[in-house]
Specification:
The complex is a heterodimer.
Chain A (H helix, E strand, L loop, with lengths): L8 E8 L2 H13 L6 E3 L7 H4 L7 H27 L12 H27 L13 H5 L5 E6 L7 H10 L3 E7 L1
Antiparallel strand pairs in A: 1-3, 1-4, 2-3
Chain B lengths: L4 E2 L7 E2 L16 H13 L4 H27 L14 H25 L9 H22 L6 H5 L15 H32 L5 H11 L6 H34 L11 H28 L7 H31 L3 H12 L3 H13 L7 H4 L2 H28 L14 H24 L5 H7 L9
Antiparallel strand pairs in B: 1-2
Helix pairs in contact in B: 2-15, 3-4, 3-8, 3-9, 3-14, 4-6, 4-9, 4-15, 6-7, 6-8, 8-9, 9-10, 9-14, 10-11, 11-12, 12-14
The chains are: A alpha+beta, B mainly alpha.
């Protein structure tokens, strides 16, 4: 086997240029039972995730947790440093009162929430990942520029090469091709 | 206006039928690839001699500023013109001014996003960059005004130190540390989030290997997957939702640096909204100044159109009226409140030794924006360029007036004084302008100055008709 590179199909791909046709195609592919397929677009296309029957993102739940963490961190920090660890009387003001804690509590809530949102967004989107099995495909490279690319990966439980190709052709994809690793 | 027809190279040709109602957001004949190419070629072409000359000038100004900072730190803040009773001078004026300028960026990127104002897509990237760079300038001043910035760590941040002391959370100055720190961080995260898909679009656009690898790195390997877009869009929405109250809180807290003090001229409840309106006012003026230049120099006429400027000038007019209202309301309350000290401060502001600063402020902030009642003027580039600079002059004088005139007449007439800046303070201020412009030019040259994916998403025919 020396010298011969083993190739295996990793996905079947097809291109779209019209967002309306893309949306209908996405619906049909989802209805055909494919669950791991993906569509690469240069900008978010309204309604595409619903047409693909993707579940709603859980990101906002994590953001809430991040925000709550910031909220309690701030309150705990202000209360413990000022009223427990080092009691410093300044102008007879109370050592702790929620009123003067409001601004910093708000700011830390926002800060923690924003950083959590960003980090969890990357994790959920599986980023950073500087490699894609499709990266040498010319059409796929254009997906961040001006083309909608549908990919049904070989990892999809329903994947049968000929079926996937036929389906993409039937739903109107252009340039249907097999991408090999 | 005629119904215009747009040819999308990849997006199917579609008749744009709402043309009679609204002006197009992008002129020319935009296609998806043309947007990438138009923005990408700004970065792709080699920098011109003019660019290096401009960088040399602003870089020199920045170097002067840093030399003055070094001199201040090495000698002590006695080299500034601060005295008794005017303990705050240019440093705090400049701090508030720069922070205020940043606010327009967040307003455009977050608040206009929540209100679904599609015209923001042409200017939000540059405005957010402006925010970040302006906050960087602002942050310098509180740091160096401590005199010994290397000690500022335990004055400003609650970290366990050998003296076992903590910061004073009851002080609005401490609130400021958190407000400005959070503001900078969140603005940066928001800005970078927006940039990820654009770096991805550009990494495949460039021919040069170095550029490809740099932009690939910063794109984090973004592929445009719909599975990623749904998380991304939610993240963008949450960040916008967070930035909106954040931006309002930041200048409110800055205003509390003053309003919490029991000093006539500062101790007033109108300060938070008054400062926020002023911040948005000056920020939009700076956006207009920068965008007029960027549009000409980079040839972005198709993307930043008169329609965008028209809208921004309307905001300038509205916020200008708000600060005008605040100025008059301060006087009214001084009279109505029947507090002789408060009354004295305000009469002194308008007629005392700093009358020239006060009336410069009123002219620039209240009188100048009134020309924008006329649609012709709102669409006149030279007029808005001059007006936007005047507005920022006016807003600088507003902060100077609030700080200097409230302090220079103490309760005790024996300690009355007059504050004038020294060359060191002027040098540091000029330096921050140079530093700001240097950063902005580098940004305009090496980072996509227009939000590529966002512009694509609002092009006619880019979204499905029914869903």
């Amino acid at each position: 086997m020396a010298g011969t590179k083993k190739t295996a199909p990793v996905a079947v791909m097809g291109d779209f240029e019209d967002p309306d046709a893309l949306l209908k195609a996405a619906e049909k592919i989802a209805n055909a039972g494919y669950t791991a397929f993906d569509i690469y677009t240069p900008y978010p296309v309204h309604g595409l995730d619903r047409a693909m029957k993707l579940p709603k993102t859980k990101l906002s739940f994590f953001s809430l947790l991040g925000g709550l963490a910031g909220f309690f961190t701030a309150l705990l920090m202000i209360w413990w440093t000022g009223a427990v660890d080092y009691k410093l009387n300044i102008g007879g003001k109370p050592l702790f009162a929620f009123q003067f804690a409001v601004p910093i509590t708000f700011e830390l809530t926002v800060l923690f929430c924003a950083l959590t949102t960003f980090a969890v967004m990357l994790v959920l989107s599986k980023l950073p990942k500087w490699y894609s099995p499709y990266q040498h495909d010319k059409g796929f490279q254009r997906a961040v520029d001006d083309l909608f690319v549908v990919a049904i990966p070989a990892s999809d439980p329903r994947f049968i090469l000929e079926d996937a190709k036929r389906l993409l052709e039937n739903v109107g994809a252009k340039n249907v091709r097999v991408v090999e690793d | 206006m005629e119904v215009q027809e747009y040819a999308g190279a990849e997006v199917k040709q579609k008749r744009w039928d709402w043309g009679k109602l609204r002006e197009p957001l992008v002129l020319g004949e935009p296609t998806l690839h043309k947007v990438t190419a138009d923005i990408g070629q700004i970065i792709d072409r080699p920098p011109t001699v003019k660019f290096w000359i401009a960088i040399l000038i602003t870089g020199t100004l920045a170097a002067i500023g840093f030399a003055c900072i070094a001199y201040t730190v090495a000698t002590g803040i006695g080299v500034w013109g601060n005295n008794n009773p005017v303990g705050w001078g240019w440093a705090i004026t400049n701090f508030v001014w720069w922070i205020g300028i940043g606010h327009a960026g967040t307003l455009i990127s977050a608040i206009l996003y929540l209100f679904q104002q599609k015209w923001r897509t042409a200017i939000n990237r540059a405005a957010e960059a402006m925010t970040i760079f302006a906050v960087m300038q602002a942050g310098l001043f509180p740091l160096i005004h401590t005199g010994r910035p290397w000690l500022a760590a335990y004055w400003l941040f609650p970290y366990p130190n050998q003296m076992q002391m903590w910061v004073n959370f009851r002080s609005p100055l401490e609130w400021d540390v958190f407000a400005v720190g959070t503001y900078f961080t969140v603005s940066l995260v928001f800005w970078y989030t927006g940039l990820i898909p654009d770096f991805a679009a550009l990494r495949n656009f460039f021919r040069s290997k170095v550029k490809r690898s740099v932009y690939t790195f910063f794109s984090l390997g973004w592929t445009g997957s719909t599975r990623a877009w749904r998380h991304y869009e939610m993240a963008y929405l949450i960040l916008a939702g967070l930035s909106t109250p954040l931006v309002l809180s930041v200048h409110s807290i800055v205003s509390m640096d003053f309003a919490m003090a029991i000093l006539p001229g500062w101790h007033t409840t109108i300060f938070p909204p008054y400062f926020v309106a002023g911040a948005i006012f000056s920020g939009f003026a700076m956006v207009i100044t920068l965008m007029v230049i960027a549009r000409e120099v980079l040839g972005l006429h198709n993307y930043i159109t008169l329609y965008h400027f028209d809208n921004m000038n309307k905001i300038l007019l509205a916020t200008g009226m708000m600060v005008g209202y605040a100025y008059s309301m301060e006087f009214f309350i001084a009279w109505y409140g029947a507090n002789p000290y408060e009354q004295f401060v305000f009469i002194n502001r308008a007629t005392g030794p700093y009358w020239w600063a006060y009336w410069t402020m009123v002219f620039c902030n209240v009188v100048v924006p009134q020309i924008f009642w006329s649609k012709k003027m709102r669409r006149n580039i030279p007029v808005m360029f001059v007006a936007s600079i005047l507005v920022n002059v006016g807003m600088w004088f507003e902060r100077f007036t609030i700080i200097a005139t409230s302090l220079h007449r103490d309760f005790l007439p024996a300690s009355w004084g007059y504050y004038a800046p020294t060359w060191v303070e002027v040098g540091i201020y000029v330096g921050t302008i140079g530093f700001f412009l240097t950063l902005f030019m580098l940004f305009a040259k090496y980072v996509p100055i227009i939000a590529i994916s966002e512009v694509k998403a609002v092009l006619p025919g880019s979204q499905p008709k029914h869903h």
